Amino acid sequence: MISQLEKLLGTPRDGALLRYSLGLEHAKAGNNARAIEYLRDAVARDPLYSAAWKALGKALTEVNAQEALAAYEQGISAAKQKGDRQAEKEMTVFAKRLRKEPR
Questions:
Q1: Is the torsion defined by CA of 84, 85, 88, 93 positive or negative?
Q2: Which of 35, 58, 60, 84 is geometrically suited to a Cys-Cys bond with 26, CB 3.0 to 4.6 A?
Q3: pTM of this prediction exceeds 0.90
Q4: What mean pLDDT do residues 45-70 have?
Q5: Which of 33, 98, 100, 92 is closest to 69 using CA atoms?
């Protein structure tokens, strides 16, 4: 699946959705660094892409809690702007959990 998606990079179909999809696939495959890279690309291309922010926060949780928290906070803001209540609620819960974790 990853190789099929990567063939679309640089084509007219390349965009936030493709980068998000690649991020999810790399996360599933255990390639967290690549997942983060593609998810960051997705939110750079579409700053209101709340699902990509949520996935980015999740991927970053494995690496850096502060960066994950920042991603969730930006995602919450994006979700509010879009009216995506479910994503807003989920990221709010994830952010609260990160704030409570001992460092």
A1: negative
A2: 35
A3: yes
A4: 97
A5: 98
